[in-house]
Amino acid sequence: MDRLSNLPHDIMVHILSLVDIKSAARSSLVSKRWRYVWTHLVNLVFEAPESYDFSPRQLIKGLDDTQVEKFCTMVNKVMTANCATFLNSFRICFPLKKPTSNGIDNRLNFLYHLRNSNLGDINKWIEFALTKRVRNFELNLSDFQGNIVVNSYTIRKDFFLVRPVYNDHLYTLQSLHLEGLNMDGPVLENVLAYCLNLECLTARSLRYHSSPSRSSFDYTQNQHRHLVVSSLKLKYLEICHCFDIKSLKISAPKLTSFTYFANYGSIEVEYTNVPSLVNVTFGDHYCFHILHNLHLLSSFSHQLEKLAIHWNQVNRVAYGLNVILRNNLLDLKSFIEKCPMLHTFKLELWPLSKQAVPMSGQRDVTINYEMHKHNQLKVLEIVGFDGSASLAEFVFCVTQNAPMLKKIICDYRCPRSKGNAHKWYDLQYIDRKGFVRRQAKLLAKQIRGGVDVVIL
After folding, report:
1. Which of 157, 304, 390, 395 has CB atoms 3.0–4.6 Å from 185's, for a disulfide?
2. Quick one: average pLDDT of 376-392?
3. Which residues form the F-box domain (predicted)?
């Protein structure tokens, strides 16, 4: 212990940065030398503990007031004690909301209201982070599935202008993550306009502030907005389930990665200037929209290196779209054919039911596996592998027409929806693990030599 106490102050701070904030604070009891070291931490992460119950039953019930107040008290105490001159990261990831009296609305989405007593706390957290010239800032008040937020915290369109004479943080903010919030205006556009060094922007489960007289989320009455993303330095952009946004226009010459999830209505995305875009992830309804309108990718498909498709068949049914039949997963080959420079294709499958037709021990010779030869594809990853015949046919089609393919990854676990981790999905499908692994091994035996099949 004496040797550790003799280390330089910066190294001691770095050691404490490797543990959670509670453990770091306990180090003050070790000795006088360690008493205030934790107050100089520059990475402050506040999130739900691993022991939290992630089940839907708990989400409906809501968090206990004691849990919420305990969390807020901890954050406030750490803020008061912190002596760092700047912050590298400040993350709030905790659902400070409770269900409405109805619990669930008519679209089977959980509705939550923010506790009034926490509004002042959130304002203090934002001001603290920005005055500390934070580089990476996350404010995430969504539940553990990223569900609809009603009467959540409303973030002002000028929230980043903390004080008229003190706005150095406008030049230090590099990454911003907003989730589970309401917006009172063009929050995202203003952030991009004022924070000139912003490189990463993540927006999940956001909606524009509506009249407080409406007690439930109303899809028909909310005003749709047109979002314009224009930035010279933005490299990473993620927009997932942001309600009210009807169209999106992107002009970002340095943008390399883009993630977009939209699960309702007609979506228009215009890619006006994305010469550096090489990594794309599409999810939910937008996948189906793109599949039938591949020309929308023409401005950047020739340069894509990584493409991930989150194919949610549950949403496909919910929104009145045709269910995928046994061999219709072969249609997904169009995504690969459209991107000649693609070297990694990731398919995330959300299970529709447990009634999928399992693959057999031999290929079906009657199926047409024709596809344009793809000479760049090297990795095929499947998350939510269910051992179905339709999925096996898709894999056979790709392996037959991608001579440079080196690896296939089969992961039985259910894909994560955009939002906090919700472990209960893995528990729900754990009983199928043995069957799926046997199916994956059966698939591996039928794939041509030279392809490494990794089963997770």
Report:
1. 157
2. 89
3. 1-49
